[in-house]
Prior knowledge:
One of its GO terms (cellular component) is cytoplasm. The protein is of the alpha+beta class. The chain folds into 2 domains: 6-135, Impact, N-terminal domain (Ribosomal Protein S5, domain 2), CATH 3.30.230; 137-202, 2-Layer Sandwich (Alpha-Beta Plaits), CATH 3.30.70. Helices cover 33% and strands 38% of the residues. A hairpin with a 2-residue loop joins β2 (14-21) and β3. The model has no long low-confidence stretch (mean pLDDT 95).
Amino acid sequence: MLEKDTYNTIHSAVGDALFKEKGSKFIGYAFPVISEDEVKMHLEELKKKHHSARHWCYAWQIGVEDIQYRANDDGEPNNSAGQPIYGQILSKEITNVLVVVVRYFGGTKLGVGGLISAYKTTAKLILDAAKIIEKTIDVNFQLNFEYVDMNKVMRIIKEHNIEILHQRMELNCELVISIRKKYANLVQQSFEDLRCLKIKALTP
């Protein structure tokens, strides 16, 4: 069986999905993220934008093969906000995403069941509004070789339509290339067969 080398994520940030329940307002946002620093940045921006809100509940999932996630109730009863939001991320089968639901309290308590429903509904609304795209899992390699061997190296790059991320062309050349995971071993072997360069996989 071929190892899966694609994943789904959202194309771009979407916001302001509004759900109202008994006077409370729930506003949903979704952001593509690849690090916890980005998560913190988006949360800080939303707290400034909605400084008079009562809660900023969220869930995120980052990673493709090594998955990390977090669900945060931000003062709501345990598992009444973060988990329902995270459940929607799972149901969409997406990763590298942050979903935040901002709540303005309307004066009437909704109870745990009402909260679960409201946070789940708002998270679903915002993810339904997001464009979901498929991306490939890529492996990056660093190539080091002499300038005289440039043509041999470039021939393999053109043959396999390989993306060059970084290049330094001097007497000693260095390239950083990106290859779709399922072709990585084949292409690595092609370069190793040249015997005129050093190739090493870069950890993401």
